Amino acid sequence: MFWWRRRKSKQKAKERLQLVLAYDRAKLAPGKMEDLKRDLLEVLHRYFPTEDREVEIEFEQRGERVVLIADIPVRS
Amino acid sequence: MKEEGALQAKAIVVTSGKGGVGKTTTTANVGAALAQEGEKVVVIDVDVGLRNLDVVMGLEGRVVFDLIDVLEGRCKMRQALIRDKRVENLFLLPASQTRDKEALDPKVFRAVVKHLIEDEGFDRVLIDSPAGIERGFQTAAAPAEGALVVVNPEVSSVRDADRIVGLLEAGEVAENHLIVNRIRPKMVKRGDMLSVDDIVEILGIRLIGIVPEDEGILVSTNVGEPVALRKDRSAAGEEFRNIARRIRGEEVPFPDLDESGGIWQTVRRIFGGR
Fold this sequence. Notes:
The structure holds 2 protein chains of 2 kinds.
Chain A: H1 2-7, H2 9-26, H3 32-47, E1 56-62, E2 65-71
Antiparallel strand pairs in A: 1-2
Chain B: E1 11-15, H1 23-36, E2 41-45, H2 53-57, H3 67-71, H4 77-80, E3 82-83, E4 90-93, H5 106-118, E5 124-128, H6 135-141, E6 146-151, H7 155-170, E7 175-183, H8 185-190, H9 196-203, E8 206-212, H10 215-223, H11 235-247, H12 262-272
Helix pairs in contact in B: 1-11, 5-6
Pfam families (chain A): MinE
Protein name (chain A): Cell division topological specificity factor
Organism (chain A): Oceanithermus profundus
Protein backbone atom coordinates (compact mmCIF):
# COMPACT_ATOMS: atom_id res chain seq x y z
CA MET A 1 0.00 0.00 0.00
CA PHE A 2 2.71 2.39 0.98
CA TRP A 3 4.63 1.38 -2.09
CA TRP A 4 1.59 1.93 -4.29
CA ARG A 5 0.99 5.36 -2.85
CA ARG A 6 4.55 6.44 -3.30
CA ARG A 7 4.66 5.24 -6.85
CA LYS A 8 1.38 6.69 -7.92
CA SER A 9 1.03 10.04 -6.23
CA LYS A 10 -0.11 11.43 -9.56
CA GLN A 11 -3.14 9.13 -9.51
CA LYS A 12 -4.02 10.51 -6.11
CA ALA A 13 -3.53 14.07 -7.40
CA LYS A 14 -5.83 13.39 -10.32
CA GLU A 15 -8.59 11.90 -8.20
CA ARG A 16 -8.43 14.72 -5.68
CA LEU A 17 -8.55 17.27 -8.47
CA GLN A 18 -11.52 15.69 -10.17
CA LEU A 19 -13.43 15.62 -6.90
CA VAL A 20 -12.61 19.17 -5.82
CA LEU A 21 -13.38 20.51 -9.31
CA ALA A 22 -16.76 18.78 -9.32
CA TYR A 23 -17.64 20.73 -6.17
CA ASP A 24 -16.07 23.95 -7.51
CA ARG A 25 -18.00 23.68 -10.76
CA ALA A 26 -21.25 22.87 -8.97
CA LYS A 27 -20.57 25.82 -6.62
CA LEU A 28 -21.19 23.68 -3.56
CA ALA A 29 -18.94 23.53 -0.52
CA PRO A 30 -17.99 19.90 0.05
CA GLY A 31 -19.13 20.17 3.67
CA LYS A 32 -22.65 20.93 2.42
CA MET A 33 -22.93 17.48 0.93
CA GLU A 34 -23.64 16.00 4.36
CA ASP A 35 -26.47 18.53 4.87
CA LEU A 36 -27.92 17.63 1.50
CA LYS A 37 -27.77 13.97 2.42
CA ARG A 38 -29.55 14.61 5.70
CA ASP A 39 -32.30 16.68 4.05
CA LEU A 40 -32.70 14.11 1.34
CA LEU A 41 -33.13 11.36 3.93
CA GLU A 42 -35.71 13.44 5.73
CA VAL A 43 -37.79 13.82 2.57
CA LEU A 44 -37.38 10.17 1.70
CA HIS A 45 -38.52 9.19 5.14
CA ARG A 46 -41.84 10.96 4.53
CA TYR A 47 -42.54 8.76 1.55
CA PHE A 48 -40.84 5.57 2.65
CA PRO A 49 -41.15 5.66 6.40
CA THR A 50 -40.50 2.01 7.10
CA GLU A 51 -36.79 1.68 7.23
CA ASP A 52 -33.53 3.48 7.72
CA ARG A 53 -31.42 3.66 4.66
CA GLU A 54 -28.00 4.66 3.48
CA VAL A 55 -28.02 7.19 0.64
CA GLU A 56 -25.00 7.70 -1.53
CA ILE A 57 -24.64 10.94 -3.45
CA GLU A 58 -21.85 12.11 -5.67
CA PHE A 59 -21.12 14.44 -8.53
CA GLU A 60 -20.38 13.21 -11.97
CA GLN A 61 -19.01 15.18 -14.87
CA ARG A 62 -21.00 14.47 -18.03
CA GLY A 63 -19.43 16.41 -20.83
CA GLU A 64 -20.12 20.04 -20.02
CA ARG A 65 -22.59 19.28 -17.26
CA VAL A 66 -22.08 18.36 -13.64
CA VAL A 67 -24.73 15.87 -12.54
CA LEU A 68 -25.75 14.94 -9.03
CA ILE A 69 -26.08 11.18 -8.72
CA ALA A 70 -28.01 9.72 -5.80
CA ASP A 71 -28.12 6.02 -5.12
CA ILE A 72 -31.24 5.46 -3.03
CA PRO A 73 -32.30 1.96 -2.07
CA VAL A 74 -36.09 1.92 -1.52
CA ARG A 75 -36.12 -1.64 -0.38
CA SER A 76 -33.10 -3.32 1.05
CA MET B 1 -6.70 20.64 -40.93
CA LYS B 2 -4.03 23.31 -40.95
CA GLU B 3 -5.73 26.69 -40.67
CA GLU B 4 -8.22 25.13 -38.31
CA GLY B 5 -5.56 25.30 -35.63
CA ALA B 6 -4.62 28.95 -36.07
CA LEU B 7 -5.64 31.44 -33.43
CA GLN B 8 -7.89 34.05 -34.99
CA ALA B 9 -7.61 36.19 -31.88
CA LYS B 10 -5.39 39.24 -32.20
CA ALA B 11 -5.71 40.19 -28.56
CA ILE B 12 -4.59 37.29 -26.35
CA VAL B 13 -4.46 37.30 -22.57
CA VAL B 14 -1.83 35.15 -20.84
CA THR B 15 -3.30 34.03 -17.56
CA SER B 16 -3.31 31.30 -14.91
CA GLY B 17 -5.14 32.29 -11.73
CA LYS B 18 -2.27 31.09 -9.56
CA GLY B 19 0.87 33.17 -9.33
CA GLY B 20 4.37 31.98 -10.16
CA VAL B 21 3.46 29.44 -12.82
CA GLY B 22 5.17 31.29 -15.69
CA LYS B 23 2.76 33.84 -17.15
CA THR B 24 5.36 36.55 -17.62
CA THR B 25 7.97 34.16 -19.01
CA THR B 26 5.36 32.80 -21.42
CA THR B 27 4.27 36.28 -22.51
CA ALA B 28 7.86 37.38 -23.16
CA ASN B 29 8.83 34.23 -25.04
CA VAL B 30 5.71 33.67 -27.09
CA GLY B 31 5.70 37.37 -27.94
CA ALA B 32 9.33 37.29 -29.03
CA ALA B 33 8.79 34.09 -31.01
CA LEU B 34 5.73 35.50 -32.80
CA ALA B 35 7.78 38.54 -33.77
CA GLN B 36 10.50 36.23 -35.08
CA GLU B 37 7.82 34.60 -37.22
CA GLY B 38 7.22 38.01 -38.77
CA GLU B 39 4.23 39.35 -36.86
CA LYS B 40 4.14 42.86 -35.44
CA VAL B 41 3.73 42.18 -31.74
CA VAL B 42 3.20 44.22 -28.60
CA VAL B 43 3.42 42.63 -25.16
CA ILE B 44 1.55 44.54 -22.48
CA ASP B 45 2.17 44.29 -18.76
CA VAL B 46 -1.11 44.75 -16.91
CA ASP B 47 0.28 43.91 -13.49
CA VAL B 48 0.01 47.52 -12.31
CA GLY B 49 2.16 48.04 -9.22
CA LEU B 50 4.09 44.78 -9.65
CA ARG B 51 5.47 44.99 -13.15
CA ASN B 52 8.01 42.41 -14.25
CA LEU B 53 7.66 41.86 -17.96
CA ASP B 54 10.22 44.64 -18.45
CA VAL B 55 12.93 42.85 -16.44
CA VAL B 56 12.17 39.43 -17.90
CA MET B 57 12.66 40.92 -21.36
CA GLY B 58 15.69 42.89 -20.29
CA LEU B 59 14.10 46.21 -21.25
CA GLU B 60 13.76 47.70 -17.76
CA GLY B 61 16.48 50.27 -18.38
CA ARG B 62 14.54 51.83 -21.21
CA VAL B 63 11.24 52.41 -19.44
CA VAL B 64 10.37 56.12 -19.39
CA PHE B 65 6.60 56.18 -19.67
CA ASP B 66 4.01 53.51 -18.98
CA LEU B 67 0.47 52.52 -19.82
CA ILE B 68 -1.06 54.74 -17.15
CA ASP B 69 0.96 57.73 -18.41
CA VAL B 70 -0.63 57.21 -21.82
CA LEU B 71 -4.12 57.00 -20.35
CA GLU B 72 -3.66 60.09 -18.23
CA GLY B 73 -2.27 62.08 -21.12
CA ARG B 74 1.34 62.53 -19.95
CA CYS B 75 2.68 61.03 -23.17
CA LYS B 76 1.71 59.66 -26.56
CA MET B 77 1.29 55.94 -27.13
CA ARG B 78 4.38 55.89 -29.37
CA GLN B 79 6.49 57.33 -26.54
CA ALA B 80 5.46 54.60 -24.13
CA LEU B 81 6.03 51.72 -26.54
CA ILE B 82 9.54 50.32 -26.12
CA ARG B 83 10.98 48.72 -29.23
CA ASP B 84 12.98 45.56 -28.64
CA LYS B 85 16.15 45.95 -30.69
CA ARG B 86 16.88 42.23 -30.84
CA VAL B 87 13.88 41.38 -33.04
CA GLU B 88 12.05 43.24 -35.74
CA ASN B 89 8.56 44.37 -34.76
CA LEU B 90 8.54 43.50 -31.06
CA PHE B 91 7.33 46.13 -28.60
CA LEU B 92 6.72 46.32 -24.86
CA LEU B 93 4.11 48.47 -23.17
CA PRO B 94 5.08 48.52 -19.49
CA ALA B 95 2.76 48.76 -16.51
CA SER B 96 3.07 51.53 -13.97
CA GLN B 97 5.06 50.48 -10.93
CA THR B 98 3.85 53.26 -8.63
CA ARG B 99 0.09 52.96 -9.06
CA ASP B 100 -2.43 50.27 -8.22
CA LYS B 101 -4.90 48.12 -10.11
CA GLU B 102 -7.66 50.72 -9.74
CA ALA B 103 -5.75 53.04 -12.06
CA LEU B 104 -6.70 50.85 -15.02
CA ASP B 105 -10.32 50.50 -16.05
CA PRO B 106 -11.44 47.49 -18.16
CA LYS B 107 -13.36 49.67 -20.61
CA VAL B 108 -10.47 52.05 -21.07
CA PHE B 109 -8.03 49.20 -21.50
CA ARG B 110 -10.27 47.67 -24.16
CA ALA B 111 -10.04 50.94 -26.08
CA VAL B 112 -6.24 50.94 -25.73
CA VAL B 113 -5.95 47.48 -27.26
CA LYS B 114 -8.37 48.40 -30.04
CA HIS B 115 -6.23 51.43 -30.81
CA LEU B 116 -3.05 49.32 -30.94
CA ILE B 117 -4.61 46.89 -33.40
CA GLU B 118 -6.58 49.28 -35.58
CA ASP B 119 -4.42 52.41 -35.58
CA GLU B 120 -0.90 51.22 -34.74
CA GLY B 121 -1.19 48.14 -36.94
CA PHE B 122 -0.23 45.42 -34.50
CA ASP B 123 -0.93 41.86 -35.65
CA ARG B 124 -0.90 40.50 -32.14
CA VAL B 125 -1.36 41.97 -28.67
CA LEU B 126 -0.20 39.71 -25.83
CA ILE B 127 -1.51 40.75 -22.44
CA ASP B 128 0.36 39.58 -19.33
CA SER B 129 -2.34 39.22 -16.69
CA PRO B 130 -1.73 39.60 -12.97
CA ALA B 131 -2.39 36.56 -10.76
CA GLY B 132 -5.77 36.23 -9.12
CA ILE B 133 -9.32 36.59 -10.39
CA GLU B 134 -10.00 40.13 -9.23
CA ARG B 135 -9.95 43.44 -11.02
CA GLY B 136 -6.44 43.08 -12.44
CA PHE B 137 -7.37 39.88 -14.19
CA GLN B 138 -10.77 41.25 -15.26
CA THR B 139 -9.05 44.24 -16.85
CA ALA B 140 -6.44 42.11 -18.59
CA ALA B 141 -9.10 39.78 -20.01
CA ALA B 142 -11.54 42.52 -21.05
CA PRO B 143 -10.13 43.16 -24.55
CA ALA B 144 -9.06 39.54 -25.17
CA GLU B 145 -10.56 37.34 -27.85
CA GLY B 146 -8.31 34.44 -26.91
CA ALA B 147 -6.29 33.21 -23.96
CA LEU B 148 -3.19 31.22 -23.20
CA VAL B 149 -3.89 29.51 -19.89
CA VAL B 150 -0.60 28.62 -18.23
CA VAL B 151 -0.66 25.73 -15.80
CA ASN B 152 1.91 23.76 -13.81
CA PRO B 153 1.41 20.00 -13.36
CA GLU B 154 0.31 20.45 -9.80
CA VAL B 155 -3.05 20.24 -8.00
CA SER B 156 -3.43 23.86 -6.90
CA SER B 157 -2.41 25.28 -10.27
CA VAL B 158 -4.85 23.04 -12.19
CA ARG B 159 -7.68 23.92 -9.84
CA ASP B 160 -7.07 27.64 -10.26
CA ALA B 161 -6.81 27.23 -14.03
CA ASP B 162 -10.22 25.57 -14.08
CA ARG B 163 -11.67 28.61 -12.35
CA ILE B 164 -9.98 30.91 -14.84
CA VAL B 165 -11.32 28.92 -17.79
CA GLY B 166 -14.82 29.26 -16.34
CA LEU B 167 -14.40 33.02 -15.96
CA LEU B 168 -12.97 33.39 -19.47
CA GLU B 169 -15.89 31.50 -20.97
CA ALA B 170 -18.38 33.55 -18.96
CA GLY B 171 -16.61 36.69 -20.21
CA GLU B 172 -16.93 35.44 -23.77
CA VAL B 173 -13.24 34.95 -24.39
CA ALA B 174 -13.65 32.30 -27.03
CA GLU B 175 -10.29 30.81 -28.00
CA ASN B 176 -8.77 29.35 -24.87
CA HIS B 177 -5.60 27.33 -25.16
CA LEU B 178 -3.57 25.45 -22.59
CA ILE B 179 0.15 25.64 -21.96
CA VAL B 180 1.49 23.08 -19.52
CA ASN B 181 4.62 24.65 -18.10
CA ARG B 182 7.47 23.27 -16.02
CA ILE B 183 6.75 19.62 -16.64
CA ARG B 184 9.38 17.17 -15.42
CA PRO B 185 9.38 14.09 -17.66
CA LYS B 186 11.20 11.94 -15.12
CA MET B 187 8.61 12.60 -12.43
CA VAL B 188 5.79 11.96 -14.90
CA LYS B 189 7.41 8.65 -15.88
CA ARG B 190 7.68 7.69 -12.22
CA GLY B 191 4.00 8.40 -11.74
CA ASP B 192 4.67 11.26 -9.35
CA MET B 193 3.48 14.10 -11.54
CA LEU B 194 0.22 14.79 -13.36
CA SER B 195 0.80 14.09 -17.03
CA VAL B 196 -0.18 16.43 -19.84
CA ASP B 197 -2.97 14.04 -20.83
CA ASP B 198 -4.37 14.10 -17.29
CA ILE B 199 -4.43 17.90 -17.25
CA VAL B 200 -6.00 18.21 -20.69
CA GLU B 201 -8.64 15.67 -19.68
CA ILE B 202 -9.46 17.56 -16.50
CA LEU B 203 -9.55 21.07 -17.94
CA GLY B 204 -11.04 20.18 -21.29
CA ILE B 205 -9.42 22.95 -23.35
CA ARG B 206 -7.17 22.65 -26.35
CA LEU B 207 -3.48 22.04 -25.72
CA ILE B 208 -1.05 24.37 -27.47
CA GLY B 209 2.23 23.88 -25.61
CA ILE B 210 4.19 21.55 -23.35
CA VAL B 211 7.14 23.38 -21.82
CA PRO B 212 9.62 21.28 -19.85
CA GLU B 213 11.23 22.46 -16.64
CA ASP B 214 14.44 24.11 -17.80
CA GLU B 215 17.25 25.75 -15.86
CA GLY B 216 17.83 27.88 -18.91
CA ILE B 217 14.74 29.89 -17.99
CA LEU B 218 16.28 31.18 -14.77
CA VAL B 219 19.53 31.93 -16.56
CA SER B 220 17.66 33.84 -19.25
CA THR B 221 15.75 35.84 -16.64
CA ASN B 222 19.04 36.55 -14.87
CA VAL B 223 20.42 38.16 -17.98
CA GLY B 224 17.15 39.56 -19.33
CA GLU B 225 17.05 37.68 -22.58
CA PRO B 226 14.02 35.50 -23.40
CA VAL B 227 15.08 31.89 -24.15
CA ALA B 228 13.16 32.01 -27.40
CA LEU B 229 15.67 34.61 -28.61
CA ARG B 230 18.78 32.85 -27.38
CA LYS B 231 21.05 31.00 -29.75
CA ASP B 232 21.78 28.06 -27.45
CA ARG B 233 19.19 25.37 -28.01
CA SER B 234 17.25 25.04 -24.82
CA ALA B 235 14.25 22.72 -24.66
CA ALA B 236 11.99 25.46 -23.28
CA GLY B 237 13.09 27.99 -25.88
CA GLU B 238 12.42 25.49 -28.63
CA GLU B 239 8.92 24.82 -27.34
CA PHE B 240 8.09 28.52 -26.97
CA ARG B 241 9.03 28.95 -30.62
CA ASN B 242 6.82 25.98 -31.46
CA ILE B 243 3.91 27.50 -29.53
CA ALA B 244 4.21 30.63 -31.68
CA ARG B 245 4.11 28.48 -34.81
CA ARG B 246 1.05 26.61 -33.54
CA ILE B 247 -0.66 29.94 -32.81
CA ARG B 248 -0.05 30.77 -36.46
CA GLY B 249 -1.72 27.51 -37.48
CA GLU B 250 1.31 25.40 -38.26
CA GLU B 251 1.05 21.81 -37.18
CA VAL B 252 4.09 21.24 -35.01
CA PRO B 253 4.33 17.95 -33.08
CA PHE B 254 4.45 18.23 -29.30
CA PRO B 255 7.61 17.17 -27.49
CA ASP B 256 7.39 13.57 -26.38
CA LEU B 257 7.45 13.67 -22.61
CA ASP B 258 4.47 11.63 -21.55
CA GLU B 259 4.37 8.80 -19.12
CA SER B 260 3.50 6.13 -21.67
CA GLY B 261 6.33 7.72 -23.64
CA GLY B 262 8.40 5.93 -26.20
CA ILE B 263 8.28 5.57 -29.89
CA TRP B 264 4.57 4.75 -30.22
CA GLN B 265 3.44 7.98 -28.73
CA THR B 266 5.73 9.87 -31.05
CA VAL B 267 4.34 7.95 -34.00
CA ARG B 268 0.79 8.57 -32.82
CA ARG B 269 1.42 12.27 -32.43
CA ILE B 270 3.08 12.70 -35.79
CA PHE B 271 0.44 10.78 -37.72
CA GLY B 272 -2.62 11.30 -35.57
CA GLY B 273 -2.06 14.98 -35.00
CA ARG B 274 -3.30 16.45 -31.77
